[in-house]
């Protein structure tokens, strides 16, 4: 899952900012806490995908996408497009193939016995009235 690795690198690079000048965090990149959190989530997605846990990876990617979209205001405008595009692409490319659930068949049951009113001392005429 090369895309997951690329997204992880992008998140880490965006968080670092790339400038040696003292600027506000928002001006140079993501707030470090967000970058670390999102990079850790991207790593978890990669791990799940690498272990054949596509459904788990897809849930994690959707969670990461929701968090990024929810905190988009904290991302510098120049980084919003690439970050949102990357996380959308990541979430859309993961395939979830649920494992088949083993269904245990019930043993066959004997057909119900016909109800015999005469065996119980009841005597009904054909119209359902007692004699």
Hey, roughly how much beta strand do the residues contain?
under 5%
Mean pLDDT: 74
Radius of gyration over all CA atoms, rounded: 31 Å
Query: What low-confidence regions span 5 or more consecutive residues with pLDDT below 50?
Result: 12-27
Most strands sheet: none
The tally of helices reads 5
Q: Which series of helices and strands comes N to C?
A: HHHHH
**In terms of structural class, how would the helical and strand content be classed?**
mainly alpha
| Helical residue percent band | 40-55%
- Overall strand count: 0
Distance between the termini: 81 Å
Report the principal-axis shape. Answer: elongated
Description:
With 131 residues, the chain is mainly alpha-helical. The protein has a domain at 2-12 and 32-93. The chain has helices at 2-16, 25-28, 32-50, 54-70, 77-93. The termini are far apart. The relative contact order is 0.13. Residues 12-27 have low confidence and may be disordered.
């Amino acid at each position: 899952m090369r895309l997951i690795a690329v997204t992880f690198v992008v998140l880490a690079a965006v968080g670092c900012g790339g400038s040696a000048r003292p600027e506000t965090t928002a001006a140079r990149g993501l707030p470090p806490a967000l970058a670390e959190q999102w990079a850790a989530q991207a790593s978890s997605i990669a791990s799940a995908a690498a272990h054949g846990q596509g459904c788990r990876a897809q849930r994690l990617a959707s969670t990461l996408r929701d968090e990024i979209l929810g905190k988009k205001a904290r991302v510098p405008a120049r980084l919003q497009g690439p970050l949102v595009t990357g996380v959308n692409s990541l979430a859309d490319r993961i395939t979830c193939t649920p494992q088949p659930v083993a269904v245990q068949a019930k043993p066959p049951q004997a057909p119900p016995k016909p109800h015999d009113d005469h065996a119980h001392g009841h005597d009904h005429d054909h119209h359902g009235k007692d004699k």
